[in-house]
Amino acid sequence: MNVGMIMKHDHKKVVILRTGLSLDGSDAVMIVPFKSGKPSDNALYVKAKTWVKDYWIPLDQVSVVKAAGVVHACTSPGRLPKEPLNAVLKEVNKVSR
Hints:
This protein is α+β, with helices and mostly antiparallel strands. It has one helix and seven strands, in the order E-E-E-E-E-E-E-H. About 15% of the residues lie in helices and about 40% in strands. A five-stranded antiparallel β-sheet has the order 6-3-2-1-7. It is globular and about 40 Å long.
């Protein structure tokens, strides 16, 4: 599992933002949903253009979950492009300080 991978959690596409975390004594990762529907205008999000289509990453829905609950699946485009990934990580780092 690597940062930027698109995987599934609770049957929904998510992007891995951080690895190497711990939650209740178990390995954990920081994730955020990867949505194809555009959020409302007042929502804070990053737009990600991929080879498949445009996606939106809602920055107010970042969470830390047990790594065992995040699974590999056939999730096109497979990995978030570098530019939107860096934009998401920059925003997440601002909030976590």
